[in-house]
Amino acid sequence: MNALFTVIVVVQVISALTIIGLVLLQHGKGADMGAAFGSGASGSLFGATGSSNFLSKSTGVAAAVFFGATLALAFIGNNRAPVSGGVMENLPVAPAVPNAPATTPAPANAPAAQGNAAPAPVPAAPAGNAGQANQIPK
């Protein structure tokens, strides 16, 4: 799939460069009047009117190839594998710390022992804002 993506990108870049070159080679609308009076455009490689038809058709073909490559890239880019979860779910699990001393927290209503300090009480949220901490204000 990656090789196909690369080939389509190369085709798109080449067709874009071809379009740029063909557009720069074409004459503007004002050049047709000068060719009618013999200003040197009639001595071109394809004749007085042959170059405009050939370059216009070549530009159209290059544009069709460019649009086709763009649609193919959009189709390939849209058909990606679905993500199974978030970024945090793909992290490796850290191993447990060996030989860690097992400490049990003291109950909140028990007196503090010598080695274990009672955990600090967590302040309660105000009653007016309960449940609204994660909401965005309007």
Helix and strand layout, with pairings?
Elements: H1 2-25, H2 31-36, H3 50-78
The gist of it:
The protein is mainly α and 138 residues long. 43% of the residues lie in helices and 0% in strands.
How would you explain this protein's 3D organization?
Helix 1 runs antiparallel to helix 3. The protein has a domain at 45-80. By secondary structure, the chain is an all-alpha fold. The mean pLDDT is 74. It has three helices and no strands.
Run of helices and strands = HHH
How would you state the average pLDDT, rounded? 74
Count of helical stretches = 3
Using only CA atoms, what is the Rg? Answer: 36 Å
Q: Main beta sheet, described?
A: none
Gross morphology: elongated
Structural class: mainly alpha
Low-confidence stretches: none
Helix content: 40-55%
Oligomeric form: single chain
Which descriptors would you attach to this protein?
138 residues, mainly alpha, 3 helices, 43% helix
